Amino acid sequence: MSEANAQRQRADIGAQHKWNLDDIFTSWEDWQSAYDDLAAKIETYAGYRGSLQQGAEQLLRVLALADEAGQLAYRVWYYPSLMYDEDQRDNEINAKRQEVQILIAKWQQAGAWFNPELLGIPLEELNTWLEGSEELAVYRFSLTEIYRQQEHVLDDSGEKLLSYSASFNSTPSDAYAALTTADMSFPTITLSDGEDVKVTYGQYRKILSTRRVQADRAGAFEAIYDKYGEQINTYAALYNGVAQKDWFHAQARKYDSTLAGALHGNNIPKEVVETLISATRAGVEPLKRYHRLRKKMLGVEKYHLYDSSIPLVESTRVYPYDQVQDWVVDSVAVLGDEYQSLMRKSFADRWIDVYENEGKRSGAYSASVYGVHPYMLLNYNDTLDDVFTLAHEVGHSMHTIYANRTQPFVYAGYTIFVAEVPSTLSEALLLKHLLKLNDDPRERAVLLQHAIDSICGTFYTQVLFANWELEAHRLVEAGKPITADSLGALYTELLDAFYGDVISIDERYARTWARIPHFFRSPYYVYQYATCFASSAKLLAQIEEGGTAGIGQFLDLLRAGGSDHPMALLQTAGVDLREATTVNAVIGQLDALVTQLEVELGQLENPEPKT
Fold first, then answer.
1. What's the mean pLDDT in 420-424?
2. In what order do the strands lie in the sheet with 352-355?
3. If you classify domain 243-253+270-315+430-605 with CATH, what class do you get?
4. Neighbouring-strand partners of residue 374
């Protein structure tokens, strides 16, 4: 039995497949010392209140201290956080993690004075300081950004008052997390072969993607959606709390809408989201075409969204982790030797926690630990999805590496708006590489379906989510009630707009919004998956068409970190998301892939049995 498929205790996993947190701290004693140092720096920072008027040297002193504390905070936070994700049953480590959360909240309160005090200095005077100090000039973009947002910054007392809300802003999200995890009692169903299965989130996905009998997929869908239905009014109340919180902060900071408040920080025009939604809704025909093909191949009388995960072509192939590393590295050869070398280092130096173990956090992520290196969490299980997830997270990590080693700390982090661009591009390059390695129609069909499903899930579904989220917030802004019925009706309307009569509608679909954690945890986040997908599609075309110029534009985007507004960074790289043509590139890509899939399926002598 492979290490990926075995039932694992963490101690049974080889060291080469576990991340090495000693690169952050070698002991809890070292961590505690750093924690105490961070607490002291926060206290010192608070003591600088009222000092900025002293001049350029004092401003530089304050900024340098903030950078020192910020760099230290990365390590102090991630050491217990990453260790907790190894086994989330460990309450002792979770307590240390919460200690850091509390300390960072105190830091936010201790630093609430900075922006109002800086704004007390005339911009003309600040520019004089910047011109006279090369060291201070490094902070020009970050400082002038505060002035740009001046109309949305409150006075000292107002900012301090808002800082107190930090401790309970996450309450709806925390309650949602508890309701959907710790307090969730998963239903059990009996499948067509007589097997009783508890429909956990993982089992739900597994049933939808592996059970070829439609009744099994329907049973799992009905069971999990009925479970959400039992508390649908509670979910609606929690979402109302999220939307009301967003509207409160938007009004407090004098934005005309929650969307404007969400976009202003990164200087993103509202037309980006509006163009994304309108262009996508106008380009749903390739999406419908794919699902018509699926309905035909599956041979079902009625086609539901719970039928959209079952493979059209079965493959028993497994993808051992130690084998696929070379594929991922080889796939990015076009980006240069240095890029490949850095990627190999991430594999060799134990930056990745590879396999699932009891208690480990689910999913996958790349964590930027400034001053150390990125860490990646996987739950690798030898599947094709896992291969692309690896490529995705390594793409994030490469972004972090290039940004951190090029930019000063203040600009080393990059915004969510560009975060998914290199990760999505990494997946696209891997797809092209794997298609070149395979001439078997069955294997090519498997790869093409994976790529198509990625566009459907990462682009179309996220735009639908973004459309729903925008309209739900507009209900609050218009003073209209947020109820389970109104949220459900909105979601059903959007299903019709995106899928039309291609899918059969079950009344339970109206509860789908309650199953989307991003709605509760990260409002106005999901649209960025789609914009990043569109951006990466445009960049991939430039790399293929422009040779070294396109490669240079992409690498410069990674190196830029957060040194400018994300729209400006993307425009420098040749991508303008205000144009519908950027969105249409993805729509055209899907249309071409569906055509390829039709060709490969047509060459198969033995299609899969009907469901």
1. 93
2. 352-355, 373-380, 365-369
3. mainly alpha
4. 368
Beta bridge partners of 377: 353, 365
pLDDT per position as a tens digit, 180-218:
888 889 999 999 999 999 999 889 999 999 999 999 999
Q: Which segments of 283-334 does DSSP mark as H helices, in order?
A: 285-298, 321-331
Q: SS3 string of 61-84?
A: HHHHHHHHHHHHHHHHHHHHHHHH
User: Which is nearest to 458 in space by CA: 438, 439, 440, 431?
Assistant: 431
CA separation for the pair 101, 99 (Å, rounded):
5
Sequence letter at residue 471? E
Neighbours of 476 (CB within 10 A): 21
Residue written as tokens 């999505």?
A: 424
- Token pair 């790399």: residue: 543
Instruction: Name the percent of the chain in helix, strand, coil, to the closest 5.
Output: 70, 5, 25
| CA dist list (Å): 521 to 239, 242, 269, 331, 518 | 10, 8, 23, 34, 5
Q: Is the pLDDT of residue 2 over 60?
A: no
What is the topology classification, in CATH, of domain 10-167?
A: Butyryl-CoA Dehydrogenase, subunit A; domain 3 (1.20.140)
Average pLDDT over residues 259-268: 93
Whether the CB-CB separation of 441 and 603 falls below 8 Å is answered with yes
- Dihedral sign for Cα 312, 317, 322, 326, please: negative
Distance CA 354, CA 20 (A): 12
Which tokens go with 7? 């039932």
- SS3 call for 568: helix
Q: How many distinct helices (H) and strands (E) make up the chain?
A: 28, 5
Dist. CA 167–CA 163, nearest whole Å: 8
> What residues does CATH 1.10.1370.20 cover in the chain?
243-253+270-315+430-605
The rounded distance, in Å, linking the Cα atoms of 18 and 357 is 11
**DSSP H/E element including 365:** strand 365-369
Q: Kindly report, as residue ranges, where domains of CATH 1.20.140.70 are found in the chain.
A: 10-167
Q: How many CB atoms are closer than 10 A to CB 585?
A: 19
Q: Is 603 exposed, middle or buried (0-12, 13-18, 19+ CB in 10 A)?
A: exposed
Give residue-wise pLDDT tens across range 31-52: 999 999 999 999 999 999 999 9
Provide the pLDDT confidence category of residue 607 given band limits of 50, 70 and 90. low
The pLDDT of 484-491, averaged and rounded, is 98
Q: How far apart are CA 250 and CA 100, in angstroms?
A: 28
pLDDT, mean of residues 463-479 = 98
Ranges in the chain annotated CATH 1.10.287.830: 170-230
* Greatest pairwise CA separation for the chain in angstroms: 80
The matching CATH number, chosen from 3.30.930.10, 3.40.640.10, 1.10.287.830, 3.40.50.2300, for 170-230 is: 1.10.287.830
**Under 8 Å between Cβ of 324 and 352:** no
Contact 392, 427 (CB under 8 A): yes
Write down the residue that tokens 């499948």 correspond to.
191
